[in-house]
Predict the structure of cytokinin dehydrogenase.
Amino acid sequence: MEFAIFCTKVNILIIIIALCSPCKFIQSPIDFGPPNMLQAKNTLSLDFGRIIFDSPSAVLRPQSPEDISLLLTSLFASSFSKVTVAARGAGHSIRGQAQALDGIVIEMDSIPSNIYIHKRGHDEEGFSYADVSGGAMWIELLEESLKFGLSPRSWTDYLYLSIGGTLSNGGISGQTFKHGPQISNVLQLDVVTGKGDLITCSPTKSSELFYAVLGGLGQFGIITRARILLQEAPQKVKWVRAFYDDFDAFTMDQELLISMPDLVDYLEGFIIPNEPSLLSSSIAFPAHLDSMPPFLSEGGSSKVYYCIEFAVYDFQVRDTNVEQVVEKITSQMSYKAPFIYSVEVSYFDFLNRVSMEEISLRSRGLWEVPHPWLNMFVPKSGIKEFKCLLMDNIAVNEFEGPILIYPLLRDKWHTNTSIVLPQASTCSEEDEQVFYIVGVLQSTNPASCSAQCLDGILRRNRRIVEAASTEKIGAKQYLPHHPSLMHWHNHFGRHWNRFVAHKNLFDPLGILAPGQGIFSRIHASTL
Ligand SMILES: Cc1cc2nc3c(=O)[nH]c(=O)nc-3n(C[C@H](O)[C@H](O)[C@H](O)COP(=O)(O)OP(=O)(O)OC[C@H]3O[C@@H](n4cnc5c(N)ncnc54)[C@H](O)[C@@H]3O)c2cc1C
Ligand SMILES: *[C@@H]1O[C@H](CO)[C@@H](O)[C@H](O)[C@H]1NC(C)=O
């Protein structure tokens, strides 16, 4: 242990000495230290998107937050260094956000996950919570907390993402309408700022840093530990899918369901552009496929269908009957009868459902392919127009991958975090509460979609963003990617000045998360 830390420090110093000189860059990280500290760099220029491939000059595998602090303190102290630093969680970004061209990538998973569960006793005040390293994955936290009968409240659909990575963005899924995004379920953070300071922050301590970092796209600091709120975990989950062929009925039912948080624990929904899309979205849902809506295969029509997916948690308490709760909910819905299906699965399998899709896609060679994904927050007032815009722009018959669409409630989001939501519309107050997340999660098989075809999809996505960003629809990108500073400025709107002020405060030299493409590195020759 001692030796490992000593080794790391030596390595960091070597990197710093090498990188602080303005013209001398490390050519090969292999030259510096043992391979477990400074790894081969090629995997670090890859991410889930497979669109951007920027190589770093060096890789750091820290053993502790102090190692990260040492690196950033040294870089901050050198006015000549042009070196940038990107924390890499699980590398599941789409557009190189966790890459650092000619800089240093920090592999956050090299710090042990160190999960500590604090279970509140019945007579104790406060909440149960978990302390966990920023580089740990959500699946690890789930497994550990379940040993105590506990679980985080708010999730992402996929659990092989890092805690620090999703907290730097938002973290949304079907529980968000009820508990808010993951960034609304954090009690405290340890953060290493771009100046190298290691700071513990919370809503009451260094609160400006705390809120800035949440949804902050990695611009203000590296999250080395998070304190995540926990609740009692259910035993089982009743998981229901209902089908629609009318968009208005679909969205009205979704909005009805999020108005019943006492009954509903999870709500999502998706657009079904074609039959293969239905089949692939059914992999994890263990209902008989032959009982799926037959209307979908009706004579080659290019009709689009919609599916609401909701869940009721089953704590297996004697006086609550989950069947009755589901019945109470579905009796108020107006799906296309009789196309409703329900299954009961364990809580773990429910949360981990996307990993079944991953296994299936991997087995068909369709996981490690380019993913030109587009995620947008759309005000309720513009959702229908956005849906039309989307369907006009995608090739419905060829589209591969899910198109998620479900409503969220504005008052579950703290306005002081850095995340950008659509501006409240001028409609009634009740309408302003609701906005939608739309995830166009397309994958492109290189066998049928060439580099040119991929480029076409990226340009189409850009057109959709531009058209949806006008006042008429008023949408904002989630997991944003923008081509210029002007676009970033527009993205943040009235919060741009606050975002820039936080940058000047916490990472004034622009060292952190260069792959987001927002700020430039500041060094002696730019001053
Ligand atoms: C299959 C799949 C499913 C997904 N499902 C959902 C979903 O349901 N809901 C949802 O909200 N999102 C979802 N996402 C998106 C996901 O939340 C983001 O891509 C997130 O950034 C991934 O986390 P990561 O650990 O891979 O981050 P990375 O790609 O490693 O990093 C993302 C950004 O955060 C920075 N960063 C990483 N770690 C830290 C840290 N510790 N401190 C500070 N900054 C850091 C990086 O430098 C980078 O800028 C999904 C992505 C995939 C690939
Ligand atoms: C949010 O930020 C404003 C402006 O900086 C501040 O006055 C307010 O106290 C903050 N709210 C919280 C909950 O920290």
